[in-house]
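Contributing new complexes? Match this layout with T3D.
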Amino acid sequence: MEDNQPVLLTRQDGVATITLNRPDKINAFNVAMHEMLREHLATIVADGAIRAIILTGAGRGFCAGQDLADRATKPGEAPPDLGQTIKTWYNPLVRRLRALPLPVIAAVNGIAAGAGANLALAADIVIAGRSAKFGQAFCKIGLLPDCGGTWILPRLVGQARAAGLALTGDNLSAETALEWGLIWKVVDDAALLDEATKMARHMATQPTLALAAIKQALQVSSTHTLDQQLDLERDLQQHLGRTRDYREGIAAFLDKRPAQFTGC
Ligand code: T3D
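Output block (do not edit by hand):
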């Protein structure tokens, strides 16, 4: 793996670690970075041995969203077609992360701004270093939160706080993000990657199909009625009840031994 690539991928012990790697630009997204991230996600899906993913950033920040240098226009030039870039890159990325049948853990090291913040929030679990900040920077440049920001924020923190975050663009500290229920955990900066790796390695030993079903059920719950959700739980549980890991979970419990889940 070349260290100068815009996105790095390492794979070990069933865990894929994706590192956004343009640290001098706080890992802001350009097309090369989107392309490589897309490629790495395809590699992970094709690698049957990967059972958990960590998403993090190189250097002092997680991701500053879109590279704004790529959006500068000279007088008389046509404006960029943001609908097209969102359709081509950001929306497929969020959809892909949400649909992956694997847990995705964002390890947020430092600032996560704009699309960078909402990319982190698209993960299943967000662990932040104590110095991390989450900023809906969009309104400061005349845009609205994208990457699902207007969908996820009210669901995580309620309308009042979502509106405050989106309309001011103020950075939220990791501690406040935790207190508000935006993220799962805050740890010391120096412990961030170890903590995320420990969690990902643990998840990579767990019943992967069950974790995927949990992810799926939680994602749709806010748009379902209770009846619809009860039906979905029934269907998913029926499927899980036929898996090898479920049989192993029961056998291990009855034998009073740790379960050896294989992810199928
Ligand atoms: O366009 C589309 O396709 C639509 C989709 C849009 C999605 C979006 O994400 S829109 C929102 C884009 N992001 C932002 O507006 C955030 C812009 N950045 C900042 O506000 C600040 O840089 C930060 C709050 C993230 C960090 O501040 P600070 O003071 O810690 O660092 P800094 O000095 O501002 O940045 C360090 C370097 O990174 C600096 O470069 P330099 O001067 O050392 O050469 C800065 O220009 C560069 N940088 C930071 N963010 C971006 C960036 N360069 C390009 N694009 C950025 N987003």
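Reviewers usually confirm one structural detail per submission. For this one: Residues 25-26, 28, 64-69, 71, 82, 85-86, 90, 111, 113-115, 135, 137-138, 141, 143, 146 surround T3D (CB under 6 Å).
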